[in-house]
Amino acid sequence: MLRRRVFLLSRINPNFILSSPLLSRANVHLRCPPPPNPNLYTDSTKSHLSISVPFRFSLSPFTTAPTSDEFNEEPDVELEFSGIEEDVNLNRDVEKVMRMMNGFSLDAVQVRQNLELCDVTVSPELVTSVLSRIRNDWSAAYCFFLWAGRKPEYRHSVREYHTMISILGKFRKFDTAWGLINEMRRFSPSIVTPQTLTILIRRYAAAHEVAKTIGAFYAHKKFGLTPGITEFHSLLSALCRYKNVEDAEHLLLCNEKTYPFETKSFNIILNGWCNAMVFVGEAKRFWRNMEIKGIPMDVMSYGSMISCFSKAGNLSDVLKLFDRMRDSDIEPDIKIHNSVIYALAKSKCVKEATDLLRSMEKNEKGKSSPNAVTYNSLIRPLCKAGRTEEARAFFDEMISKGLSPCIRTFHAFFRNIRTTDEVFDLLDSMKSSNCKPEIETYIMLIRKLCRWRQYDKVFELWQDIHLNGPFPDRSAYIVLIHGLFLNGKLDEAHKYYEEMKSRGFSPEPRTEAMVQTWLSGKEMGGGTKQDSIEVGIKKKKTSKRDYKRPETRDVTRESGFSFWHTARE
């Protein structure tokens, strides 16, 4: 099978995938197990990659592309943070408020007093900008939200309410979030819209509270709203996005009378199995179920299946389904082309992926012209394979065509860099291109710098989060604490542990065990740094003469970190 695939790919030319006689008669054979019981009404490794030259990105001014691409099924609910125009006075006021908010976790009372003395002009743009900066600290965000709402010259709009409700839902403060919705209804019943409830529906789904997700959907009637097919689709999308796909499928099947079956409804579930779960077997089963029920497949249906095969590395299935789609007179869209390119590049068929890219450029209709995601589909697999020079060439080509890199583009290059200078050079280039680092960017770099034992740079990066990025979330604290502990920086790790708890973040059980063991040893006066670092880590005994053999050295692994230790005599 492998030889046949290699032979098949070796003959690909720019038009091969579009009109392959070898694949034109191929079919995707799908087997369907019995459908599940449609009753929902219950309460229910990576290796180090080398880089030959330092990164020096010369970027012309442009606006970066959105971070979401065809591999993300829908954007997050935090759309309230987008669309804020740059304003010098606004930025000055935002920075002034941020200085007042700094240290909220240490002295909330003092911060509240400072806000009362803050002489800024409160506006919807100011509130939204500040909330976007402190969205990872719900208590600070809520304190600021209440302070702004008490200003006589200002009144919260729907946008600010939605932003705050989203933040509260993210941290599972659902009672407080419902309180804000009730406040909105008292102020004006008309400002409570289906979008308001959709925010909480998505947050409940993210917390895997399926019964409460459905309950929030039926709350439409409480607010005088009638949930239609659009709201039902939003419910299904929320469940699927956060991997509650089986529940979403049951909900779809048992509501046929209320919401008649249509292609879009089934595409949402299919996309959940394909992109949220990447379960090839379940995706094939559901595809076959659509055929049995007579649901017509459209370009979105084929796109979900091809994306699933692409992510799973099933290149043969990608090409077969791609050809079958064209036989069905369904024109592939840009997302499908991007998935095929990604599958080819991931299977090290870079030449064939490049040929398909060139054929897209020659497309006279212009419907499938390459975009930033197309180039990302090449850049990401190349970086993962350590072929940095080739990835850089496609990056330069993308820039030369006026296409904007996104977070994913930079993350691909970040994984390959090997020095601290390259880290900060690329970070500066990222900021200069108006592509602001996300908290995931900082988490990746903190882990990398801790692995390199560059403690000063770690703290410099942590300070940069407070100045330029959103407040650190729970994941950022845990990565920092584990990295410091494993490097023997115990007092510093404990300081950030206490800071994390003061901000309302609960530590992981592993983190709690490490800290408590160290504190116990410190109180008894018998703990050492080495004892503290090795909490719960089993060591392989080595003989005295084996210490020079690399394969017998001890290794400590914890939360993405790996450290070699010479065997002790």
Automatic annotation (TrEMBL):
Region of interest (Disordered), ranges: 523-569
Q: Which residues form the signal peptide?
A: none
This protein's source sits in the domain of life called Eukaryota
PPR repeat feature ranges: 298-332, 371-405, 438-472, 473-507
Q: Name one Pfam family in it.
A: PPR_1
Listed Basic and acidic residues bias regions: 544-557
Q: Does the keyword RNA-binding apply?
A: no
Listed InterPro entries: PPR_P_subfamily, PPR_rpt, TPR-like_helical_dom_sf
Which keywords describe this protein according to UniProt?
Repeat
So what family is this one in?
Belongs to the PPR family. P subfamily.
Q: Which NCBIfam families match?
A: PPR
Q: Which PANTHER family match?
A: MITOCHONDRIAL GROUP I INTRON SPLICING FACTOR CCM1, PENTACOTRIPEPTIDE-REPEAT REGION OF PRORP DOMAIN-CONTAINING PROTEIN
User: What protein name is recorded for this chain?
Assistant: Putative Pentatricopeptide repeat-containing protein
